[in-house]
Every structure is written in C-alpha cells, then in structure tokens.
Design brief:
The complex is a heterotrimer. Chain A has nine helices and ten strands. By secondary structure, chain A is α/β, with parallel strands linked by helices. Classes of the chains: A alpha/beta, B alpha/beta, C mainly alpha.
Chain lengths: 251, 299, 219
C-alpha cells in the first residue's frame, strides 16, 4: 500500500443469495485522486460504493480506510463513516428538517459541535453551491438539483477524507444535471479525494484522473480518461463505450 | 388554520342541532306525559287491552338472569316465579307472549317508551316508580336483605366502615334505600345481577344488598355466605306494572289477580318455581294471593 | 326538560367525567408506551419477543374491551389475582389500546424508506441517533392521524367501564335513570358531557396533524 493511499480494497466479494455481485475487487484510491467508475447497469458499481460505506456486509476480502478496516457491524463504524462522505442517487434529505437542520444535524449530534459553529460553516458551504437563500426551506420546496447540492453540503460539513457519489444525477431532470456536476467539478478542483459512479461520460472524461470500467462484478480495465475512452484495451470496454459514441454521433 | 376553524364551527353547529333536537324531544315527551295523565291517551306510547288482543301478542318484560324469578334455562326457555305468572296471563288473554329481557335500571324506561306492555320483573312497588308507571295488585312480599361472607358477617349496617364498599345493582330498591337512608355507605354499583353475583364471589365488596328473596337464594346456593341482615327497611311488595295511564290493561290484570286467588295460583307458582331454592319455610311470608292487604287498600 | 334536575345532576356528571378522563388518559398514556414498545420489537425484528407481540396484538384487536374487562375483573380473581375496578379499567384500556397504538406506530415506521436510515448512518450517526433524530420524528408524524383516531376511540370505549362497577358517564346516566327516572335529562347530559370531553381532543388532534404534516416525500 502506498503511503498516500486513502482507500484500499483487497479481494472484495459481495453476494446476494449466492449470486455474486462483486467478484474480487482490488482498488486503491490515492489522496486527492478523482476516480470514476463506469460500466453497464447491474455491473455492481453502486453495490461497491455501498460496501465501502459498510451499508452492505461483504462475504470476502477487506476494505481499509487509511489503513483501518471498515466492516458492517464494527464498533468504530460511526467514527469511520464520518470520514466517508456519500451522496445517493435518490433524494435522501430528511424531509422533516429544514435545509439548515439537515446540514447541521450530524455535526451537532455526532461531532458535538456547537450550533453556531455548525451553522456558520453550513452558510459558507451553502454559499459555495449557490443556495444561500434556501437555508430555511424544507426539502419538499427544493428542486431535484437543489436537493442534491444540499446533500453534498451535508456530506462536506463532516470533513470526510473521501467522497462517494452514487449516480447522483441519474434521477434529475436534464436541465438540473449541470448545476450538480459543476459543484462536483469544483470539489475536484479543490483537490478532494473522490470516487464517482456515473453514466455521464463527458463529465467522467472531464473530471477523472482515472477511469475504472466494471462489468459483471469485476474491474475489467482502468486507465487515464483519454486512454480508456479513446483506446480501450478490452473488447467489453470498447463495446460499452461504443454505445455512447454511437449515440453522440447521432446527436 | 382555516381548516381547523371550519372543523370547530361545524362541530359547534352539530352540537347546536343536537341541543335543539333534545329540547324538542323533551317538549314532546312532556306534552305526551300530560296527555296520558289526562287519560286522553290518543298519542300514548302504550297499547290498550283491545289493541293487544287484536294484535295477538303481548310483550312482557322479564329478567333473564335472575334465577329463580326470571331466567333463561339451559334450553333457552324463560322460567321462574314471574314467568309462571306471565304464562298464565298470556293464556287468559288468549295471546302469544313475546318475552323482552330487561335489566333493573331500564324497567321504567321500557314501559315509558312502549317497548313492553307489562313488566313482570321482580318489580318492587315504590312511590317514585309509581309516579312513572302504574302498578297492579301485588303478588309477592319483599324486603331488603344483606348477604356477606362467613368470614365477616355483617349483621347491622353500623358495622360497615368508611373503607368498605357494599355491592348493589343499579336501579334496584336496595340502591335507592341505601342512597337515601345511609348516604355514608360507599356503594359499588353493577349493571347486571350476574356481575354483582360475580363481584361478591370475588370479594370485591364486603356485602351485597338486594331484595331479601335474592340474597336468601344466593346464600342458600352458595356455601360460605350468610344473610346477616334478613330484613332491612320497610316491608314492600312486588307487583306487575304497565305504562302510566294504561287503565284497560291495568284493570284486566287486577281482575286476573283477584280471580286467581280462588285457585291459590301463587302458592302453586311458589311450589313450582321457588320451593327448590327457599324450601317451604318462606312460602307464607313471600306469597300474596289476590293482592293481599293491598287489594282493599289499593287506590 | 327540567333545569332543576339538570342542575342537581351536574356534579355527579362532572365527577363521572373526571373519572373517565383520569382513567381514560392514563389508559391512553400506557397504551402509547405499550404501542411504542411493541412497534420497536417488530421494527427491530427481535426474535421470540416479536412472536409474543404478534400474538398479543391479534388477541387484543380481535376481542371486545367488554370481554377483556370481564376477564380481568371477574375471571382473574378465580385464580387469585384481584384487581380494583380502576386498575382493571386502566389495564383493560391499555390491553386494548396498546395493540392499536402499536399498529399505528408500525405503519408509520414502515412508511419511512430505508434510504433515510442509510443516509443518517453514512453521516456517522449510530443506529440509535438515526432512530431518534431521523426515523422516529417522521414515523410519528405519519402515525398522527391514526394516533388521534385511536385516542378518541379509546376515550369512547370507557363507556363499557360500567361493567366493572366504575361510575363513568355512561353508568352514571343509567344509574340516575334507574334511581329517579328522569330519562331525558340524564341522556341529554350524557351526550353533552361526551361532546365536551371529546371535542377538545378532536380539535387538538387536527391542529397537531397539521403541524406535523411536513413529512411529505418526493417533491
């Protein structure tokens, strides 16, 4: 393991009722790296993120965050999870709380920070994602794109070491995709460590330091975005990317 | 906010309608009461003798849980001292009988609302009741009695302490008597005979006050209990009752009771229904033939 | 209707209403606790306890309160457990209400999608923190309409307390009718007192319902 490795997966196996979803995943994410996982639906990429956050128990292999094991049911799990930020595909804001309370709940309850301190940071972060005027709104009053930006702020305020994005634009109306991707590009520019699952190929190319192609529960190919998108080494990656290329030609 | 207000307003409106409705009902029933006492009877709730005869069925209110006076036997048939008499009434009227099960507290109401033509349910004659219903000649003597467990037999009401509770059945003369004469005694009230019986068996009260016929029967049937006070208050009588003002039916029942004296009907009734419970010792003290002394004293 | 009679009866009804409210509210409170416990057992899928809770809920929901009271008050003393009427009334109400409250809370809990707990966990909350700050507030707000209906239902059910010699409103009315035969007055006061007792609960309930109707999902 390299010295600046943040996340390290070794031989990760995940099964649902004897169906293998992840079949021996080895992956290292370096400090400040932006890695993008692509692949066909059902290839296991979303499950991979859920396993990293220990929302799913694994059947084999190990997950190390800064050298510390992450395992479902582990005692230190709440503490370790604070270092792993995650944004989900479906809107997962707490509907009974205002935007401000959504963001400050965890810092106050989990990290025992004062309300003033948490709210001050929340305002700074909301300003950066262009939502300063929404702090008193309830989630039902926000658009999909606004909700995802709030979810990102809610994750950032915990100061995680690594950010996981699970198809965060997949449920959005097309005109709202950009505002969320812009926030993510901004985070990448700040040098954050990010692991992104997405279907937005142009975005992947623009944001990624490394692109990982997954299929049938395995990492089939990985490399620099230009290499992988323009000269895929494997047939499967080529075939998958071809679908997007073909579409873009028609457009 | 707005919905809450409408909600409140509509509820208050409903309350208003309810109150207005109650007012009207009460005005109506007051008018009706006046009419019946005037013997006009045109809008009366009751059915006259002729109406009952032409209908072919008489409705008689009896107890269904008060062995041996009025109860339903294992075959589902009404039995008991009151029912024996009811059967005879049906026979002599030449009509079928529809038995209506009553509780102590609703006997007056059943007559006032015309649910029954006659109540034959161990109905003790009292002044208050006589203002609401018309009693015929009596057919049995009764007094109040108090039964208590052998472990602490109550022989005088003064033995009952402030911590004790006495079981009574709501709507009985025992309840009225203790409420009026011994307001210091705490009463534990039950709505049915069966519940009161269960309560004394479970030791929920120190004693059970009721008609002495009933407490004697209870003590005879349940070892471990003694009637410490066999006669409390004045000697009362039990009589059939009809709706206030139903004179045709009342007169017929009175004639019937007088006529039955010739055949000593109520002695036969006693021997058929009560002797198993009370033996022969109580026959003369309980049974009244031809209305007894009240036959001459009756208004 | 006779105003003098109404005036004379008022204290007796007030006393009965107080008894109904006292025992009714205590029963409702204990029902809520029982319901929360049962709902928690079912939500957390605790083995064995879960089966016991299920049996209890079916037993309680499928028998009338009157029968439950009879059993507690007249049945249990036969095996040596004697209860005072007030205790019996509250116990009966709790036995009945616990299951209704449990079902209300359970349906509230089940209405909250799992992603809510997962996102709370991913923010570093413990399961208990997630339950207290995220799941329960939403579940309770979903349960409020059923909860309010249950409270009113339970308060109305107190009218069968007369079976165990408790002088509640219903029994007071019946008893006064039996004693003095002023049927109209007695029944009129009965309706008025039930309305006076339940109307505030209904109105309060609808206000609370509105206040907590934030838990709308989606957009």
């Amino acid at each position: 393991m390299e010295k600046n490795t943040v996340l390290s997966l070794r031989g990760l196996v995940k099964q649902f009722d004897n169906v293998t979803i992840l079949d021996g995943i080895d992956l290292d994410i370096r400090q400040g790296e932006v890695a993008v996982i692509i692949g066909p639906s059902g290839c296991g990429k979303s499950t991979l993120l859920r396993c990293i956050n220990a929302l799913e128990p694994v059947q084999g292999g190990e997950i190390l965050l800064e050298g510390e094991p992450v395992a479902a049911g582990g005692k230190n799990l709440p503490r370790i999870r604070q270092k792993i930020g995650m944004v989900f595909q479906s809107y997962d804001l707490f509907p009974h709380l205002t935007v401000m309370d959504n963001i400050t709940l965890s810092p106050r309850k989990v990290q025992k920070r004062s309300r003033e301190d948490a709210e001050q940071e929340a305002r700074e972060l909301l300003a950066r994602v262009g939502l300063s005027d929404k702090e008193k709104s309830y989630p039902r009053e926000l658009s999909g794109g606004q909700k995802q930006r709030v979810a990102i702020v809610r994750m950032l305020i915990m100061h995680p070491e690594i950010l996981l994005f699970d198809e965060v634009t997949a449920a959005l109306d097309p005109e709202m995709v950009r505002e969320v991707l812009d926030v993510m590009l901004d985070l990448a520019a700040q040098g954050r460590t990010m692991l992104i699952v997405t279907h937005e190929m142009n975005f992947a190319r623009a944001v990624a330091d490394r692109v990982i192609f997954m299929d049938e529960g395995r990492i089939v190919e990985e490399g620099a975005p230009d290499d992988l998108f323009d000269h895929p080494k494997t047939e499967r990656a080529g075939a998958f990317l071809n679908m997007f290329t073909f579409e873009s030609v028609r457009a | 906010m707005r919905r809450t207000k409408w909600f409140a307003i509509s509820f208050l409106a409903a309350l208003g309608v309810t109150l207005a409705g109650c007012g009207q009902v009460s005005a109506g029933s007051a008018a009706q009461a006046a009419e019946t006492t005037d013997d006009q009877g045109s809008k009366a709730v009751y059915r006259t003798l002729d109406e009952i005869k032409s209908d072919g069925t008489v409705n008689i209110g009896v107890f269904s849980d008060k062995n041996p006076f009025g109860y339903v036997d294992e075959n589902g048939a009404y039995q008991g001292y009151d029912v024996y008499f009811a059967e005879r009434i049906g026979q002599d009227l030449g009509v079928k009988i529809n038995y209506v099960s009553t509780e102590a507290a609703n006997r007056v109401e059943y007559l006032e609302t015309g649910k029954v033509d006659i109540v034959l349910a161990n109905f003790t004659v009292t002044k208050e009741r006589a203002e609401k219903v018309d009693f015929a000649l009596p057919y049995m003597n009764v007094a109040l009695g108090v039964v208590s467990p052998d472990s602490r037999v109550i022989t005088d009401l003064s033995e009952i302490t402030a911590d004790d509770e006495v079981i009574v059945i709501s709507g009985t003369t025992a309840e009225t008597y203790l409420t009026e004469n011994n307001p210091e005694i705490k009463l534990q009230k039950y709505d049915t005979y069966a519940n009161a019986k269960n309560a004394i068996e479970n030791g929920n009260g120190v004693a059970w006050a009721n008609d002495n016929t009933e407490v004697i029967a209870f003590a005879l049937q349940n070892p471990g209990y003694t009637v410490g006070i066999p006669s409390l208050g004045s000697q009362d009588t039990i009589a059939p009752a009809v709706s206030k003002g139903n004179t045709t039916l009342l007169d017929w029942i009175n004639d019937e009771i007088r006529a039955l004296a010739d055949e000593q009907f109520f002695h036969k009734d006693y021997e058929a229904t009560l002797v198993d419970t009370y033996g022969l010792d109580y026959e003369e003290s309980l049974v009244l033939e031809g209305g007894g002394a009240a036959a001459t004293a009756a208004p | 209707m006779d105003a003098a009679v109404l005036h004379e009866y008022l204290p007796l009804y007030a006393k009965a209403a107080l008894l109904t409210i006292r025992l009714g509210l205590l029963g409702v409170l204990l029902s809520i606790l029982t319901g929360l416990f049962c709902a928690a057992v079912q939500y957390l899928k605790i083995p064995l306890l879960r089966i016991i809770v299920r049996v209890y809920i079916e037993l309680s929901r499928n028998t009338p309160l009157l029968i439950q009271l009879f059993f507690i008050y007249y049945g249990l003393p036969k095996i040596g457990i004697r209860t005072d009427p007030a205790v019996c009334g509250v116990a009966g109400l709790t036995f009945l209400g616990g299951s209704y409250m449990a079902e209300a809370f359970r349906s509230g809990l089940e209405a909250i999608p799992p992603i809510q707990e997962e996102s709370a966990l991913s923010l570093g909350m413990t399961r208990i923190q997630a339950a207290v700050h995220v799941i329960l507030p939403q579940a309770l707000s979903v349960s409020v309409p059923a909860f309010v209906a249950n409270v009113i239902f339970l308060l109305k059910e107190t009218s069968v307390f007369s079976a165990v010699s408790l002088m509640d409103l219903m029994f007071t009315a019946k008893d006064l009718i039996g004693l003095y035969y002023d049927t109209t007055e007695a029944l009129f006061l009965l309706v008025v007192f039930y309305l006076l007792m339940l109307l505030p609960v209904s109105i309060l309930g609808s206000i609370v319902e509105k206040k907590v109707r934030y838990a709308g999902f989606g957009t």
